[in-house]
C-alpha cells in the first residue's frame, strides 16, 4: 500500500463529528487537479464537504488523490460515486449524501482490498452514519451490480507459486490443471513520491484462454497487480520488465486467482517448447 494512502486511512480512522446540515456552505468548481472526482458527472462541489474538509487546495484535493490506488483496483463500480459524494458533494439546493445501502455495497467489495494491504475499513466511512434508503440519498445502481457479476473479478489471495526454470512437463501440467494460461510482461517503476507502481507492458497473449475474455484480460491482470501489491513486489524487481507465463482459475463465484507463475527468461527453452506443444497436447 502506498505510504500516502496509508496516512490518509489513518487520518480517517477516527470518527468525524457529524456534518451540520445547517452550517454555511459555498459552491466551487471541481478543480482540474482533483482527478479522482473530475469525471464524476457534475462540475461543482460543496464546501465544507461531508468529511469536514473546507480548504480546497490544502485538504480536499490532496486527500481525494490519496484514494486513487483503491479506485484503480475497480473494487466496486460505484466506489468513485460513493467517495466523491463525500469528498466533493454535488452542489444542489439540498444535501445529497450516500444511502446506507450504497455504503454497504461499496464497503463489502472494497474492504477486502484494504484488508489485503493490512488496513481496516475507515471508521469515518462507517455505514451506520448514513441514512436508510429514501429519496434524498445516493443509492446503488442495479445495472452495475448485474454487470459486475458477468466478468471475472480478481481478489486478494496468497501469493502464487513462482517456479524458475521449470521442466517442460511441469509447464504442460499447469496448462492442463488450470483454467487459463497467458503470457504477460510486467514492469515495475518508481513514481516521484517513491512508491512502486506496477503495470503490464504490451499485450497479454493467450496460451489457454479458458473463461477469460480477450477485451477484459489486460485490465483484469492490471487490477490483480493493484490489489495484490505485496505479491507483485516479490515478482518484479525495480526498474525491470519481465515476461511471465501466468496460470490460474476462475472460481464458481466469479473470482479469479493466479496459481502458478513462470518467469520466462531467454534461456528457458522448456517453456518455449511447452507452449508450442500445448496446441497438440492431450491432458
From TrEMBL:
Q: Which GO terms describe its molecular function?
A: Wnt-protein binding
Leader sequence range is 1-18
List this protein's GO terms for biological process: canonical Wnt signaling pathway; cell differentiation; non-canonical Wnt signaling pathway
- What Pfam families is this protein classified in? Fz
Does Disulfide bond appear among the keywords? yes
Annotated keywords: Developmental protein, Differentiation, Disulfide bond, Secreted, Signal, Wnt signaling pathway
What residue stretches are annotated with the NTR domain?
156-283
Question: SMART domains, per this entry?
Answer: FRI (SM00063)
Database matches in SUPFAM superfamilies: Frizzled cysteine-rich domain (SSF63501), TIMP-like (SSF50242)
| Compartmental location | Secreted
The FZ domain, residue ranges = 22-140
Q: Which cysteines are joined by disulfide bonds?
A: 103-127
Can you name this protein? Secreted frizzled-related protein 5-like
- What organism is the protein native to? Sphaeramia orbicularis (orbiculate cardinalfish)
Gene from which the chain derives = szl
Amino acid at each position: 500500500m502506498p505510504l500516502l494512502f496509508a496516512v490518509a486511512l489513518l487520518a480517517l480512522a477516527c470518527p468525524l463529528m457529524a456534518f451540520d446540515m445547517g452550517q454555511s456552505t459555498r459552491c466551487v468548481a471541481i478543480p482540474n487537479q482533483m482527478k479522482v472526482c473530475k469525471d464524476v458527472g457534475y462540475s461543482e462541489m460543496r464546501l465544507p464537504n461531508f468529511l469536514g474538509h473546507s480548504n480546497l487546495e490544502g485538504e480536499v484535493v490532496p486527500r481525494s488523490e490519496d484514494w486513487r490506488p483503491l479506485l484503480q483496483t475497480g473494487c466496486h463500480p460505484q466506489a468513485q460515486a460513493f467517495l466523491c459524494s463525500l469528498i466533493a458533494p454535488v452542489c444542489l439546493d439540498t444535501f445529497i449524501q450516500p444511502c446506507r445501502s450504497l455504503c454497504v455495497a461499496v464497503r463489502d467489495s472494497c474492504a477486502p482490498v484494504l484488508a489485503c494491504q493490512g488496513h481496516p475499513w475507515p471508521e469515518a466511512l462507517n455505514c451506520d452514519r448514513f441514512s436508510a434508503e429514501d429519496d434524498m440519498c445516493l443509492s446503488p445502481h442495479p445495472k452495475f451490480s448485474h454487470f459486475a457479476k458477468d466478468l471475472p473479478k480478481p481478489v486478494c489471495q496468497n501469493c502464487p507459486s513462482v517456479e524458475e526454470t521449470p521442466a517442460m512437463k511441469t509447464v504442460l501440467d499447469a496448462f492442463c490443471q488450470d483454467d487459463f494460461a497467458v503470457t504477460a510482461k510486467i514492469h515495475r517503476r518508481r513514481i516521484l513520491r517513491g512508491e512502486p507502481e506496477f503495470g503490464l507492458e504490451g499485450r497479454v497473449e493467450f496460451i489457454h484462454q479458458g473463461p477469460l475474455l480477450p477485451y477484459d484480460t489486460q485490465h483484469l491482470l492490471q487490477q490483480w497487480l493493484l490489489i495484490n501489491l505485496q505479491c507483485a513486489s516479490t515478482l518484479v524487481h525495480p526498474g525491470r520488465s519481465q515476461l511471465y507465463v501466468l496460470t490460474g482459475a476462475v472460481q464458481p463465484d466469479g473470482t479469479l486467482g493466479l496459481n502458478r507463475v513462470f518467469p520466462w527468461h531467454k534461456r528457458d527453452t522448456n517453456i518455449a517448447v511447452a507452449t508450442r506443444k500445448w496446441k497438440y497436447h492431450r491432458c
